[in-house]
């Protein structure tokens, strides 16, 4: 199963508290920070919640 590289492209300032917590739980801190996460249902669900703030790429 492939992994996903997630990059924060927009600020979490002035966002809903739930969205801020999700971004923090994903391990993203500042704009342009990236993290590699496993591709599973839990990760996909979290990414769907903040899709407007991030960019997702598939990593082999």
From TrEMBL:
Q: Which InterPro entries match?
A: Ribo_uL30_ferredoxin-like_sf, Ribosomal_uL30_bac-type, Ribosomal_uL30_ferredoxin-like
Q: How does it assemble?
A: Part of the 50S ribosomal subunit.
Q: What domain of life?
A: Bacteria
Q: What is this protein called?
A: Large ribosomal subunit protein uL30
Family assignment from sequence similarity? Belongs to the universal ribosomal protein uL30 family.
Source organism per entry reads: Secundilactobacillus similis DSM 23365 = JCM 2765
Keyword flag Ribosomal protein: yes
Q: Which HAMAP family match?
A: Ribosomal_uL30_B
Q: Which Pfam families match?
A: Ribosomal_L30 (PF00327)
Name any GO cellular component annotation: cytosolic large ribosomal subunit
């Amino acid at each position: 199963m492939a992994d996903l590289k997630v990059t924060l492209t927009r600020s979490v300032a002035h966002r809903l508290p739930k969205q801020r917590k999700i971004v923090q739980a994903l391990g993203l801190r500042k704009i342009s920070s990236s993290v590699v996460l496993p591709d599973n249902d839990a990760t996909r669900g979290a990414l769907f919640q903040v899709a407007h703030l991030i960019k997702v790429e598939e990593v082999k």
